[in-house]
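Give me structure tokens for this 261-residue protein.
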Amino acid sequence: MNSNKSKDYEYLIRTEKLSKSFGHLEVLKEVNLAVKKGEVVCIIGPSGAGKSTYLRSLNHLEEITSGKIFVEDNLFLHRKHNRTVHRVHADAQKAMLLEMGMVFQRFNLFPHKTVLENLILAPMLIRKKSRSEAIASAEKLIERVGLSEKRDTYPSKLSGGQQQRVAIARALAMEPEIMLFDEPTSALDPELVGEVLAVMKDLASQGMTMLCVTHEMGFAREVADRVVFMADGMILEEGAPHELFENPKHEKLKNFLKNVL
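Here you go.
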């Protein structure tokens, strides 16, 4: 845990005019979004809207073209026209990135390591936990995602839903302040989606701050504090789930909901 955790801040993650281009293709266009501690925010929108790129920009998997990223109200990165204006020094950057856990569409588990070994590696290497500490924490998380009996199993012997639950537990093992979910059920067979969503609902009920890119409208409606609609690289509408789903204002959101509900 870093020292910022004891300090007061309004927003855990915030972006100002965040933009991202791949060559001449403008994928994100001045996106402003802020997430408070304990808030669950779901990002919905059509394919190609920039949703996944936005998440990947937050934890530095994509280098933004321009804009500002704040973590716990501290300026993490400021870029203009592909040039860095401000970036926190390496130690602070590492500490801020550790506040974010990310779960991808694909599970990205180490195939040659058991469920337990997948969970203890990063806490030992990066958080500098002892092996016994890491194992104790990992076993609690494995139980939390309902996979205690799979503790010593290799990923190839798990279903897709089980692998994704392990991936969630692995992200939680780093004790992040916010969980970023990039369409975590999109690679799963329909009958396996529910078990992953159940874990995510449990996290939300425990107060975990979550920013989820999802095409699961039922989950967004039930669990989110706020739903954000993205299209064409921009946030076109946001609000409480009942407002967005029952009284959409933007024409593109109306058309999107007609196709997905």
